[in-house]
Design goal:
By secondary structure, the protein is an alpha/beta fold. The chain is built from 7 helices and 7 strands, in the order H-H-H-E-H-E-E-H-E-H-E-H-E-E. It has a 7-stranded mixed β-sheet, with helices on both faces. Helix 4 links the parallel strand 1 and strand 2. Helix 3 runs parallel beside helix 4 and helix 6 packs parallel to helix 7. The longest helix has 22 residues. The structure holds S-adenosylmethionine. The site of S-adenosylmethionine (SAM) has 23 residues, from helix 4 and strand 2.
Length: 220
């Protein structure tokens, strides 16, 4: 009984925070599907990663806010539709409402057949930027969750190694805690420059953070 009351209170607090969140309000005003768009926007504006003409791969794209942001970055004048200077290939386990000009693939990134579909969509070319906001469903067991996060990030690094241009960029979401230092080490082994970033749009109470790797040390 007590647990129910507590969880109701947590839900009420979450709802209150969500309604009053400036990024939620901005997303509604700017036509983004999720406040997550501003996390990528901040990272991009700080590090100048995405440019017109780029090929960008978005892993864990649903509901589509990051892809919407990239779409605007690759459009003349930042338009949400119309001319697109570059390519966007986006993947998620879940369905995603179409975004004009975005090549969307539904599937599990851990499956070989889905990787093949991604590589086919790239038509033999390499990506300038790979972004991954993939997050597994949490089980509540810290060690299981950390292991699942690690698998997705290790796979994203391996994908980047094989599919990024030599000076390309990988952005991944990860979480402070178990496994974090090992993933930073993996980034340092793989990329010439590694930057941890915690955008303001990422809530302070969340352990989520982002790692940016620039330039492959040993392109495949
Ligand atoms: C936080 S959401 C991404 C939000 C997105 N960046 C946006 O801006 O709308 C994380 C996504 O990762 C996806 N995901 C988790 N594991 C995945 C996997 N193995 N393959 C593909 N997508 C996965 C989930 O389905 C979920 O939609």
């Amino acid at each position: 009984m007590k647990t129910k009351t507590k969880s109701k209170k947590v839900n009420k607090n979450w709802l209150h925070d969500h309604i009053n969140d400036p990024y939620v309000k901005a997303a509604q005003k700017d036509g983004y599907r999720a406040r997550a768009a501003y996390k990528l926007k901040e990272i991009d504006e700080q590090l100048k990663l995405i440019h017109p003409g780029h090929t960008v791969v978005d892993l864990g794209c649903a509901p589509g806010a990051w892809s919407q942001y990239v779409r605007r970055r690759l459009s003349p004048g930042g338009a949400a539709a119309g001319q697109l200077n570059g390519r966007i290939i986006s993947l998620d386990l879940l369905p995603m409402e179409p975004i004009e000009g975005v090549h969307y693939i539904q599937g599990d990134f851990r499956e070989e057949s889905v990787l093949t579909q991604l590589e086919e969509a790239m038509q033999g070319g390499k990506a300038d930027v790979v972004i991954s906001d993939m997050a597994p469903n949490l089980t509540g067991s810290a060690s299981t969750d950390a292991a699942r996060v690690a698998v997705l990030i290790e796979m994203a690094v391996d994908f980047a190694l094989h599919n990024l241009k030599p000076e390309g960029v990988l952005v991944v979401k990860l979480f402070h805690g178990s496994g974090y230092n090992e993933l930073v080490d993996l980034f340092k082994q793989t990329f010439k420059v590694v930057k941890p970033v915690k955008p303001k749009a990422s809530r302070d109470r969340s352990t989520e953070t982002f790692l940016v790797g620039v330039g492959l040390k040993s392109p495949v």
